[in-house]
Amino acid sequence: MRRVIPAVGCAVSAHALVDRDVLLWVQRSAITVLVLDDTGLDLVQSVSVRPNQVVFRTGDCPDSIRRAVHHGITRFIVGRQEHVDHLVEYARRTTFVYLAPGLPTVVPARRIVVVGLHGDIDACGTPTEWADAAEYALCRTAQARTLGTPAHRIVLSRSAGTVVPLSVERLDSIVRAVDEALRQGCARWRLARPAVTIAVL
């Protein structure tokens, strides 16, 4: 991917860690691991992925959020204000959040720092769908700025935890599509180019 966008961040789903080669790559490179559910949280704990490598997507169960916080995770994708409220209750140190598509902003809270936005793509999403998600995230970035919530990062990932292997050519086409969407969107909304992490595994 970095052949196409040198500064792009790479991430993998926790479910991809069942592949030994992927696990070794994650452990050696300190790449970001996206945890979507309790099963993924169990997995990253069992294979000793460091908490500072993990981004946890919050769900409906407060206990999962509590578990993630107690495991030392400090980066979360939040979809509702109550997810932030739970983080405020459980976290004892600065916690960094990405806003999911349905959450334009959050109520300011102690120790909670909004760092970016998250975009979902279907498990078998086409390069065009990845580009659309990137463009929509940029539009949300402009909106968040007007609401007083500056966001300088974007994380794009599949919405499903299923691992769908992709060829190098397919990966490159996705990254090229995202790169072009970012270029056009930043020009349209007069935004500085955000840091982007793409989780395609």
List keywords for this structure.
single chain; 201 residues; alpha/beta; TIM Barrel; eight-stranded parallel barrel; 21% strand
Spell out the blueprint of helices and strands.
Blueprint: E1 9-13, H1 20-29, E2 32-35, H2 38-46, E3 54-57, H3 62-70, E4 75-78, H4 81-90, E5 95-99, E6 112-121, H5 127-146, E7 153-158, H6 168-189, E8 195-199
Parallel strand pairs: 1-2, 1-8, 2-3, 3-4, 4-5, 5-6, 6-7, 7-8
Helix pairs in contact: 3-4, 5-6
As laid out across the biggest beta sheet, the strand order is: 1-2-3-4-5-6-7-8
- Tell me roughly what share of residues is in helical segments: 25-40%
* Low-pLDDT windows of residues: none
Mean pLDDT: 90
Enumerate how many helices there are, as a single number: 6
Main beta sheet: strand number and arrangement? Answer: 8 strands, parallel, barrel
| CATH third-tier fold name | TIM Barrel
Strand content: 15-25%
